[in-house]
Specification:
Layout lengths: L4 H11 L1 H5 L3 E5 L4 E6 L13 H23 L3 E12 L6 E6 L2 H14 L3 E10 L5 E13 L2
Antiparallel strand pairs: 1-2, 2-4, 3-6, 4-5, 5-6
């Protein structure tokens, strides 16, 4: 079964309801790229009338994590995944519709292949860039994912 936006959004509703209620939605996913959006609304705002940083983080993490889930599923192996660390920078107030894009599918392929062939855990840094409707970068998140074969 292939992972697609509808399945990911249903997954959010049942497994990560806070992200779903805040409006985080997967728009597209393919071999190398995942696009997730979230719109600034009353429920996800901070006192400064912009999107709360944690809501941006949920959308950014989903854009990277959905690629990880998809690649693990494609590998046919039983691999665990976990965020080890993350970094974020904020360059503009996040208002309106924010789109997070992760394009790190190729480097993820290498990490999964190395995990499978060596049997040792691997880490991979993945980046999600959030832009507003004008194409201006509002935030950049980097997540260090760990991959390990389950026994």
């Amino acid at each position: 079964m292939k992972i697609n936006p509808a399945k990911l959004n249903t997954f959010l509703m049942f497994k990560l309801p806070s992200a779903y209620l805040c409006g985080v939605r997967t728009r597209s996913i393919d071999q190398n790229r995942c696009v997730v959006t979230v719109k600034h609304r009353w429920i996800n705002q901070n006192p400064f009338r912009s999107m709360f940083w944690a809501v941006q983080g949920m959308a950014a993490e989903l854009s990277t994590g959905a690629l990880v889930m998809s690649k693990i599923k494609q590998s046919g192996k039983n691999i665990s995944m976990l965020v080890l660390s993350n970094q974020a920078s904020f360059t503009k107030k996040a208002t309106g519709k924010i789109t997070f894009v992760c394009e790190d599918g190729n480097q993820l392929n290498q990490a999964i292949a190395k995990t499978v062939t060596s049997g040792e855990g691997q880490t991979v840094w993945m980046q999600a860039v959030g832009t507003n409707a004008d194409g201006v970068v509002v935030s950049t998140f980097k997540f260090e994912w760990t991959l390990k074969l389950k026994s």
